[in-house]
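Deliverable D4.2, example record:
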Amino acid sequence: MPSVEPTYSSDRGVTSVRHDEHIVQTCIPLLLHPDEQVQRQATLLLLTLYGTHAFTLLRRRLSDEKPQVRREAEQALRVLGRQSGHPVDFRPFRGMHIECLGTLRVYIGNQEILSHEWAQSNVSRAGRRKVQAVLAYLVHRGRSGASADEIRAAVWGEASATGALGRTLTALRQTIEHFGGTSMAESLLNSSNQRYILTPDAYTSDVRSFEHTIRVAEQTEHDRDLAAAVPVYRHACDLYGGPYLADVDMLSDEIEERRTELLNAYMNALERLAEYAYQQEDDEQCLALCRRGIRFDPTDERLTLWMLRCYARQRNESEIARVFRRYLRALAAPPDQGDAVVRWMRLRSGAHNEAVDITT
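Output generated by the structure prediction step:
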């Protein structure tokens, strides 16, 4: 898959937070509905989409400045706990949430740590970009953590930046303490056996939510059918804010591998939605979904094929030619013999007694 740097708006990274808030706000009246069946359906929806993270999303509302919002959140938590059987913590959420899809964003409680605030709360004079990069790398390494040499190689490109790493880790701890307190910093940042770890159980992330939703969508399609899985696939696509850690400067092949893995999951979800839209004869929706994916990877065969099928059904020959030319240009090399897009074009052209030009 070629490296493509699509453009996306600077606020695209907050989409998952806003979408989560919208889903929760929609479900709260259902949780508070007097009909037990409605309550159970709302509980099933929230736990299917978010798992136990649904409780965290409601707990965030317990610190809202509006008393009615706080009351409704507390009542909704009681219902969610009763219907699900999960224990409920009624304290306002004070933990950390990290967004890695698209622009790196970090929230403590309901407050986002803004770019300039990464540097203002530390006295070690570490650069904010390096502080963010170290945090991002520790998030990426998960429970296994990373050695000092691994962090230095990924963030600075060399294993000799000993003083810089010490200053940056101090700055990271000071920033967390400033916004979340000493106990949060101690629970999040740990070192063991000469490895540094950002404790996964101490924070939530959009990547986890995205991957959980993808798994639920795939399982739903397997157990039932594509139509039943469509709302879950759609939610997963809304959670994808852009390429993994797109704005973080790191020198690590494993980051690129992870970026490709998550992009592939997103592209697959778009393809399932595009197929469903095509089955429903909703060509405009199918084309819109394909365009969302093509901007990340213009060589994707499956989405290109759905676009060609839509335009063929519309008998739009000029768009078929344009999509095919763009696909060939994006390949930047002659297509393989088994290329599905070229094969589709040849089959179609054969039916029309036309030749297919695969040169750009």
